[in-house]
Design goal:
The chain is an alpha+beta fold. It has 6 helices and 19 strands.
């Protein structure tokens, strides 16, 4: 299923499903067949496999009975999951991206994933603007595969990790590469790291969507092609299978650090081709388009904050 959170000019945010280019109100479809579904994506995921099965039946019912629907173009897509408990992100999870930054390729057996967090206020949906913050003039894109957790867990074995996945989505880890946040501050150990981390926190710096595609429709994540364009110029082109730590390994590692909760988002790192490698950054008026096979197209204009 292609699950979404959407709104229209006359309707507030609600849970939907996209079928053949049409958006159906999932809760209305469930009610029409005598069921009741939560009105949020996180609420739906909290019901586990039973909830997704109810959603699937509602979607089939909506299509079979031709319930009221709107074309995708008439819906405003919000982030599929707007209130995750946390957003975990991987840094340096593709060898070519590490090397384009001037560093040597890593030996996987001798390292662990590097995980950081982004605030929920970074999330925005398809079509929402990427905002150029006042604190940086070096804003960059990072196409990533996002994993959404559907079953909570701690110390999850790698072999069982994929059973904890509810679905996948396209994600763009917008990064302010250099910050100007204080004049005349004293230099301290760690300033570079903390500035890098704070450069991940700006509002609307985590576009996600347009859909949350359920895991049953993605049998092998490693085969998914990933592409990013700025103003129709291809900047990134890779396979998800080129990750250093794959989805299962990433989930297992994160669950050693923190309990994974239903609705958690894990962004799995970006391939090579980022603007910073060439000194080319986003500017107002640009349009960034992210594509991952089977997961849809995420497109966002760039504007001054």
């Amino acid at each position: 299923m292609k699950l979404i959170t959407y709104q229209t000019a006359s309707l507030p945010a609600r849970l939907g499903v996209v079928q053949h280019g049409l958006v159906h109100d999932l809760c209305a479809a469930a009610a029409a067949r005598g069921d009741r579904l939560p009105r949020t994506m996180r609420g739906l995921l909290s019901l586990g496999a039973e909830g997704l099965d109810m959603a699937r039946q509602a979607a089939h019912f909506a299509a079979a009975h031709r319930l009221p629907a709107i074309p995708e173009a008439e819906a405003t897509f919000l982030a599929p999951l707007g209130d995750p408990p946390k957003i975990l992100c991987l840094a340096g999870n593709y060898q070519a991206h590490i090397q384009e930054g001037g560093l040597k390729a890593v030996e996987k057996a001798r390292i662990t994933p590097r995980v950081f967090m982004k605030p929920i206020t970074t999330l925005c949906g398809n079509g929402a603007p990427i905002l150029l913050p006042e604190v940086s003039k070096h804003v960059d894109y990072e196409l990533e595969l996002a994993v959404v957790i559907g079953k909570a867990g701690h110390l999850i074995p790698t072999a069982d990790a994929l059973s904890h996945v509810a679905g996948y989505a396209v994600y763009n880890d917008i990064s302010s590469r250099r910050l100007v946040i204080a004049e005349g501050r004293d230099a301290r150990d760690g300033d570079g790291f903390f500035d890098w981390l704070a450069g991940k926190w700006q509002d609307n710096s985590g576009p996600m969507g347009p859909y949350l595609v359920t895991a049953d429709e993605v049998p092998d994540v490693s085969t998914l092609g990933m592409r990013l364009f700025v103003n129709d110029e291809k900047r990134q082109d890779a396979l998800a299978g080129q990750m250093i730590f794959d989805v299962a390994e990433t989930i297992a590692f994160c669950s050693r650090l923190v309990t994974l909760q239903v609705g958690d988002i894990i962004a799995t790192g970006t391939p090579s081709g980022v603007g910073d490698a060439k000194g080319v950054y986003l500017k107002a008026g640009d349009v960034v388009r992210c594509e991952i096979d089977g997961l849809g197209v995420l497109e966002n204009p760039v504007r001054a904050a």
